[in-house]
Amino acid sequence: MISTMKKWTVGVMVGMMALSVVGCGNDSKPAATGGAPANAASAKIGVISYLSGGGAAYGEAIRQGLELARDEINAQGKTKIELVFEDSKGEKNEAINATNKLIHKDNVVAIIGPTLSGEMFAVGPITNQAGVPIMGTSTTAEGVTDIGDFVFRNALPESLAIPHAVKKAKEKYGLKKVAIMYSNNNDWAVSGFKTFEKSLKDNGIETITIETFADKDTDFSAQLTKIATLKPDAIMVASLYQEAALILKKAREIGINVPVVGNNGFNSPQLIKSAGKAADGSIMASPWFPGKEDANVKKFVAAYKERFKKEPDQFAAQAYDALKIIASALEKSGSNSDRKKLRDSLATIKDFPGVTGKFAFDAQRNPAMDVTVLIVKDGQFIELK
Amino acid sequence: MFWQQVVNGVTLGSTYALIALGYTLIFGVLNIVNMAHGEIFMFGAFAGLVLATKFNLNIFLAMAGAMLAGAVLGYLMERLALRPLRRRASSHLAPLISTIGVAIFLESLALRLFGPQAQSFPPVFPGGLLDFGMFKISYVQIMILAISFGLMLVLRFGLAKTRLGKSIRTTAENIETAGLLGINTGKIIVFTVMLASGLGAVAGVLVGLAFNAVEPTMGVTMGFKGLAVLILGGLGNITGAMVGGLILGVAEVFTVAYGASSYRDAVAFGLIIFLLFLRPQGLFGSQEQQGGR
Predict the structure, then answer these.
(1) Cα(first)–Cα(last) distance of chain A, in Å?
(2) Separation CA B216–CA B110 (nearest Å)
(3) What's the predicted TM-score (pTM) here?
(4) How far apart are the C-alpha atoms of A53 and B217, rounded to whole Å?
(5) Closest approach of B112 to chain A, Cα-based (Å)
(6) pLDDT digits over B117-134, tens only?
(7) What are the two backbone dihedrals, phi and then psi, of residue A369, each rounded to the nearest 5 degrees?
(8) Chain A environment of B212 (Cβ under 8 Å)
(9) Contact call for A222 and B5, based on CB within 8 A
(10) Cβ of A338 under 8 Å from any chain B Cβ?
(11) Strand partners for B214
(12) Collapsing DSSP states into helix, strand and coil, what is residue A43?
């Protein structure tokens, strides 16, 4: 028994060594072509996204937004872009593996993603050290760009969006006491909760209870029954849309009809699709508003609908803008493979006409953009005025 | 609020109990923990959903269809993942690993077939809320309670009184002796796995109805809760699965209601650890190890 085990172990080790030798052979090739003259080849951009698992809906929207942008850019012909997709499955270690592969094997000039803020906190330091610009399109948590000079995002940080929504809701509905619910195993939702807490305090609104749940929870009856007895003027919710839709449904079912102020997760057509009538009265602040009177937005919505047979959500729109921003930065830098030049050129982006509004990076490489406060009424997002 | 939370807890608990039943049946007869049960549960939910939305069947027919689909999956799992290992008399860990394989396969398959989005059943009883003053209960909740307790009772008496039930119990007691007594143990094993999987599928439809979210990863957390109930109630014990499920459900809901929701699972599972200190064999488990492979 032991001797067969030994044989096996030796066999496996020999096999692994053989593989790693082959692997080295493959690795050296792209490195050689990486030094080829600039602009001759297309710009290789890595994408790390949540493509399978529980949050795959976000990853899919991001992928579709990117593919649409890539094809439009390549059709225009000023810059050629090639996307290399990697699936992070929403897990930090998978995201780290993908990052290392993209930087060292694929030799990408920049990385778009990852989807979750938690993943960004894991991979940001790696790309920053390697000098590869990375741009989050959906990473809205506090502190993402503090990681380093190579970390950008075009996702509106919630520390800017939530206070707008809270202030507007207070003006409109005269909120005095509210309940907060948030997902406590999600870095991003916890950060959203902290922003809620702070902006409620700033607005002099009393928090009467704080209830938590976890991502993928489906039963919220216990929390909502408790909240119903406390009779709040509104409920603040920080969660992804899947849980948000279930919370809304349950709340309306047991007779809680007060407004629900949400974080960025609420800003998706999926929320209305899943929650149906129950979504009415949800309020959120967002840079993305598909009904906006703007030629760019209308063109994007039409093209997206034709290709993917559904309305683009915020994740698709921000990914679409991100790639367009990178393309225009590449064009300005005059090189398709110089990572440092791309970073410097990205940092100077200003007045970029994106579908999520007029766009610029501030000194902290966060987006400086306009915010619209939306409310759901009869199954439609409309502006809350 | 107290009675309302009791209703919430009992509804949640009865779905846990229904899942634990499937685990406990298979454990009783085969002495293995079927790690794919949560995924069969998820497939059942999707089968019911497809029947209800694409073929416009009424919810009870859809449930019967889902049960059938679950049973077929159970049959395939037994033939492909359990029987070959049993024949080779491999270690008892091997089937555990092979069912984990089945679980991962089914989850990925569901992701391909149905996509990652959570989907929900069409409203079965629109606007249904019965007000008893002290608490409100929806028709869906009543249906869940009735079906889960109904199935548990049928199972309990089926195993105790019918010939088939007696054969299952004999096989669970000792597989060699059962064979000597003229019971076709191979068939009994297949039947038990199919029955357990069918029950899992029904549980899937009920949970889908109750919480309105059918998606490919729903089996994972529910599967673990079911596993905890299996241990709490006593391995291979039907009454244990029922009572254990209700205890876990009520404990979770009351932690949220009168404590802090962050400690929901910590208190519920802490309670399980405490109960296992008092009765290591589970609430209704028997003292000695029994059952054969």
Answers:
(1) 77
(2) 6
(3) 0.76
(4) 7
(5) 9
(6) 788 888 776 666 777 777
(7) -150, 170
(8) 218, 246, 249, 274
(9) yes
(10) no
(11) B119
(12) strand
